[in-house]
Automatic annotation (TrEMBL):
The keyword NAD does not apply. GO terms for molecular function: transaminase activity. It comes from Streptomyces tremellae. InterPro entries: Aminotransferase_I/II_large, PyrdxlP-dep_Trfase, PyrdxlP-dep_Trfase_major, PyrdxlP-dep_Trfase_small. Residues 55-357 form the Aminotransferase class I/classII large domain. This is Pyridoxal phosphate-dependent aminotransferase.
């Protein structure tokens, strides 16, 4: 196994995620119970779940699940889908299949840490940072300048974690065309797709734009079902999928059969679940707007364009690291400070924290935060 640094986010969560009283930094939308999900199933899928044999499943994934995944794409068939035990396994194995010594990758930052540390363990990597002074815009000229003759992968994430930024449709299409022109694989993390505030900002999926591109998705984020541990890569290059399947033989081998049926139910009810989660975010945003309006001296806030996370600035004199540390220790309110999202590739803001806006009833956590702020004055 490749030697990798500590996963800062997961290490932080290991300490606080299940002990903090108020989780205000969640990266997933509000989940549902097993009963609520099964209530969305048709008779056939509900019966399939109840009669399910608990044996091994196909490495590529349950055929009916792959059909349900493929139905979310315009140009992908079930044969273009490979399922994984969450998005992290998919990312890890894809980078190991696509990259090796002598190769080069370009990664857009800020990002989920594995998007850069896994490639960095394999080859040379260049980062291109979103610009916080231009609403986290991506400079396509900077991406072009970062490419080299031996660049094999361009890794992007929109809607972005942690900023909530969404690239323009024309720019995203230009990235896909640029990768095809240069023989580069576009690896597109699309786990927040479907939670855009303006549906017109929803990007096409990379696997629909290019037969060489890889689209990464999962049931965890937009659908709010991380406990299923079901992710997938869609790619119309079936030889590449075969290589990925062989790599998966060394990790999970196959997914959990109950999770595959439940993921199939969720994907068939995808529009219902996404509408519910978008409505929850729309309901929550005025609550966060009002909180930050009351504390303009301490925070600079702008809501995300897509997804269910945001990346506000902390303006207090002690800095965001001490702020977040004291807040969780003294008030039990969990936020993720900027150090969790620092990059080894590009300069990154040091005054930000990640905020989750997709969970139900954030008022209790914000009230605890407000009471703690008041007690400090």
């Amino acid at each position: 196994m490749t030697r990798l640094p500590d996963f800062r986010l997961e290490t932080y969560f290991s300490r606080w995620e299940f002990t903090a009283r108020h989780h205000l930094t969640a990266s997933d939308a509000q989940t549902m119970t097993l009963g609520e999900l099964l209530a969305l199933a048709d008779d056939g899928d509900r019966a399939a779940f109840e009669r399910l044999p608990l044996g091994y499943t196909e490495t590529y994934g349950d055929p009916a699940l792959r059909e349900a995944v493929a139905a979310t794409y315009e140009h992908a068939d079930a044969a273009d889908v490979l399922c994984f035990a969450g998005a992290e396994e998919a990312l890890y194995l894809a980078m190991h299949v696509l990259l090796g010594p002598g190769d080069h990758a370009v990664v857009v930052t800020p990002d989920y840490q594995a998007a850069e540390t896994v490639p960095l363990a394999l080859c040379e990597v260049t980062g291109v940072a979103l610009d916080p002074d231009r609403d986290w815009a991506l400079d396509l000229d900077a991406v072009r300048a970062a490419l080299r003759p031996h660049t094999r992968v361009l890794s992007v994430n929109f809607p972005n974690n942690p900023t909530g930024a969404v690239l323009g449709r024309a720019d995203f299409a230009a990235l896909a065309a640029l990768c095809d022109e240069r023989g580069i694989r576009l690896f597109s993390d699309e786990v927040y797709r479907g939670l855009e505030r303006d549906p017109a900002r929803t990007l096409p999926q990379a696997a629909d734009l290019s037969p060489r591109a890889l689209s990464l998705n999962v049931t965890s984020k937009s659908l709010g079902l991380p406990g299923l541990r079901i992710g997938w890569i869609a790619c119309r290059d079936r030889e590449l999928l075969r290589r990925l399947e062989r790599a998966k033989h060394y990790t999970s081998i196959c997914n959990a059969a109950p999770s595959e049926v439940l993921a199939r139910i969720a994907l068939k009810a995808r529009e219902t679940i996404l509408a519910r989660n978008r409505a929850l975010i729309a309901r929550n945003l005025p609550v966060f707007d009002a909180f930050f309006a009351r504390h303009r001296d301490l925070f600079a806030w702008s809501p995300p364009v897509g997804g269910c996370v945001a990346y506000p600035r902390y303006l207090g004199p002690e800095g965001v690291e001490e702020f977040c540390a004291r807040l969780v220790e003294e008030a039990g309110v969990l936020l993720l400070p900027a150090s969790v999202f620092r990059s080894d590739l590009t300069p990154a803001p040091t005054d930000r924290f990640r905020l989750g806006i997709g969970r139900a009833d954030p008022e209790a956590g914000l009230a605890a935060l407000e009471d703690w702020l008041a007690a400090r004055t």
